[in-house]
Amino acid sequence: MASVTLKSVSKSYGTNAVIRGVDLDIKDGEFVVFVGPSGCGKSTLLRLVAGLIPVSSGVVAIDGEDVTDVPASKRGIAFVFQSYALYPHMSVARNIGFALETLGIGRDAIRTKVRDVAKMLKVDHLLDRRPRELSGGQRQRVAIGRALVRKPDVFLFDEPLSNLDSDLRMEMRVEIAKLHADIGTTMIYVTHDQAEAMTLADRIVVLNHGLIEQVGTPQELYHTPDSRFVAGFIGSPRMNFAPVSVEGAGETKHLSGPGGFAIDLAFSGQGAGAASIGVRPEAIAITGEGEGRLSGLLERIEDLGHEHFAYARLADDSVWVVRVAGRPPLELKGRMVGLAFRDADLFVFDGDGRRLDHHESHERASAAQFREARR
Amino acid sequence: MSTRLARREHRAAWLFLTPLALVMLLVAVWPLSRTVFFAFTNAYLDDPTNYSMVGIDNFIEVLTDSGWWHVVRNTLVFTSISVAIETVLGLAIALLINEAIPGRGLVRAAILVPWAIPVVVATKIWDWMLNDQFGVINALIVGLGLSDHGIAWTANSSLIMGVVIFIDVWMTTPFMVLLILAGLQLLPGEIFEAAHVDGIPAWKRFWSITLPLLTPAIGVAVLFRALDALRMFDLAYVLSASNENIMTVSIYARDRLISYQELGVGSAAASCVFLLVAFVAILIIGVLRLDRSAGAA
Amino acid sequence: MADVAIRSATTRRRSSASYRFWRRVRQGFLGLAVLVVLVYVLFPYYWAIVSSTKQGAELYQNAFVPALNFTYYRSLFENPVFLGSLVNSTFVAVSTTAISLILGLSAAYALGRIDFPQRRFVLMAILMISIFPQVVVLSGMFELINWLGLYNRPSALVVTYLLATVPFTTWILTTFIREFPRELEEAAIIDGCSHFRILMKILLPLMGPSLASTGILAFILSWNEFLFALTFILTDANRTVPVAIGLLGGSSRYEYPFGQIMAASVTVTLPLIILVLIFQRRIVSGLTAGAIKG
């Protein structure tokens, strides 16, 4: 068990900077998930922690010890790969035990350890098979077993579930959460699937263009995203955005935007100019025309059975999604409707995409903290 | 500071490359530099230690020898015509094998036979088949009434270059076929299905879709074949070692070097061969690049 | 109505029978083309077999079936010089192939798997060496062979053939090694393997097919070589097969021993052809791997 600390870690290939100065503290026993769009550098960052790729500059420390120059195999880490990377020419047992074999541990000791791990992951009946004779889920278990047998201080997962179909992915997600609860080892997990991130993580690290956008608990990221990027990335369907213009010089400013949007809000920082607002689909209610904060044409309703998504086109041609939990408003299709939401659910972002704290938003934030505290 | 891990990797890489590097120094770099060195001396093969530096005299001797320019011409004629024929024929056979027809597997296997046969053997076989008196080709020609007497293929000074090109085409077209076929199979099949559905006629599919997409594969194949053809030695040597009409630059350089024992002049000729090949390589690569950038524009 | 108008404007349909007819004509032409190609590529070798089993005057009558008279083969295998050249060729080709595979594999691992700044440069250098003409290094090589004391010995050929075969095997094995998923090697690094152990325990067991195809290509390359074999070997006893066949000749043009040459040709080529046909797919993948991805 160990903490992981990154100090201004950078990685570039020639002039192409992939990771641009990352600082991060991961506590002992924590489950941290790296998320971000493809190409944001999350996989690279994980490999820098592992030592599979040497850093260009900065310091990687595990358990307070500088391991920047320590080779991957001596860092006390284990790695579960996206493709599983099982050795195709070795049996399952040998795959799991190969690291111990390399260490020069005796045959019998290896056999016992391999058997214990295999039993724990329910693959003990497959020990003599070759990887190609296993199903996707079984390969995944073997890959985890190979990591587990080394009793690592830190577990690293690189999109381990992305090659599984959706049922199996759900099942393995639960198993990984259970594994973490059982052994309590520090885990770092990379995924592009925000649902995986939200359900597994103690803390989520959102990466974008090689930089950390925000670090926080799933609740913090959902309720108080630092930026428009994080707000858009966390939550599904994604947050609705619209451009607004800000007028006024005092504390209270006037915001106006498409669809007849107009509101007076008190916040500091941003002066007059261009900004944007955002509202989550689940925070919006559909009302009659002229009754909500915004108005738009209800173009389309998707029926997912347990819930519905309604799509409304605003005056600037942007389409807002509304999540409807109850009966779908089919009779309103093709008509102008109003979109209503509480001021507390309104996010305001400045021209650079930073979120601005307006006085109503404190209410939402404190409610979130309250929920968090009860968890 | 933190690149120590990276430096360790670089050291490991060079460790794995050391055997290769040593062997290449021994059999490529060292002999090449000695060849260039000897090109500036008046050494003879029977006693290479006894020489003096003669500047560029050897190069002048080679470049003012009409025999040299004759073999350069032979080599260029041989290379351009045989590679051109091989490309067209190779493309045709590759397209044929790419069709879903019975016997394509057989053709694909059979095509490897001429490629696997040693040049010397292939030359001897064709030499026998083209024999003016007893050759099966002449027998066929007379039998079909195309001519009333056999043709002296290899004895006729104006025909023998044609024979050399013909044998080379037979031997190396398979290489062309394999490379073009591999290129063909990399092309996305859906493009052709789309063209089919759109009702594009076959010849237009070939000219506007297949050929442009295949150009890089053909370009690489032409480059490899051309550089191979420029150094051709065995075919012409076995067919007729001293026949001026088919003598190549490689035969010329070796003759000066080994037969006439002129280490200095021979090395100069060899250096000229090197420059010739390098020049053609740069030319072809340049054309390929131009083509690629034109395609991107 | 509109629908019909569009259809008739773009595709005028003929009767089904007419399409069927043209498809048959096309198939017929393609079948004929296949036949022509097969005859073109196979007939010469078939003719060599036919000729090698004829005796005396039969040889000069163009009968298309073999006479199955094996006199030439018998005399060939009673000829110590020819047998010697077979032994020499085998020795040279096998040793060259083995050395090239070992050197090539080691270098290919570095070039295909380890990141280091000069990698592109090394690859380009290797490619350039593999295409430059043998005659260019002939004088330097002559000196080297004399200096090593190998003149007129088959081992001289092993040394000189490395010039062509080592860059060749390195290049092809590099493309093969790159095809393995990188994560496999990363997993091995995490499991504590050194580079050497990764190569021996992870890659080598998986590379059997790649090594086989690369090896066969290198073998054929050295088996067929002519220029060095002609230049560095002086006496009949030490010659390799291609030179032995190349220098076979009669006292005059009219006594040319074609039957005997054909028998020798068939003999030395048969193992190659069998090998190539057995490993057909692998050889094609080896030949094209280097060229297409290079």
TrEMBL record, chain A:
PROSITE patterns: ABC_TRANSPORTER_1, ABC_TRANSPORTER_2. Its EC number is 3.6.3.-. CDD domains: ABC_MalK_N (cd03301). Keywords: ATP-binding, Hydrolase, Nucleotide-binding, Sugar transport, Transport. SUPFAM superfamilies: MOP-like, P-loop containing nucleoside triphosphate hydrolases. GO terms for molecular function: ATP binding; hydrolase activity. Pfam families: ABC_tran, TOBE_2. The keyword Nucleotide-binding applies. InterPro entries: AAA+_ATPase, ABC_transporter-like_ATP-bd, ABC_transporter-like_CS, ABC_transpr_MalK-like, ABC_transpr_MalK/UgpC-like, Mo/tungstate-bd_C_term_dom, NA-bd_OB-fold, P-loop_NTPase. Gene3D superfamilies: 2.40.50.100, Nucleic acid-binding proteins (2.40.50.140), P-loop containing nucleotide triphosphate hydrolases (3.40.50.300). Residues 4-234 form the ABC transporter domain. PANTHER family: MALTODEXTRIN IMPORT ATP-BINDING PROTEIN MSMX, MALTOSE_MALTODEXTRIN IMPORT ATP-BINDING PROTEIN MALK. NCBIfam families: PRK11650.1 (NF008653). Belongs to the ABC transporter superfamily. This is Multiple sugar transport system ATP-binding protein. It comes from Kaistia dalseonensis.
Automatic annotation (TrEMBL), chain B:
Belongs to the binding-protein-dependent transport system permease family. It is a multi-pass membrane protein. It comes from the Bacteria. Keywords: Cell membrane, Membrane, Transmembrane, Transmembrane helix, Transport. Its main location: membrane. CDD domains: TM_PBP2. Residues 72-286 form the ABC transmembrane type-1 domain. It is found in: Cell membrane. This is Trehalose/maltose transport system permease protein. The chain crosses the membrane at residues 12-32, 76-97, 109-128, 134-152, 159-186, 206-224, 265-288. InterPro entries: MetI-like (IPR000515), MetI-like_sf (IPR035906). The keyword Transport applies. The keyword Phosphoprotein does not apply.
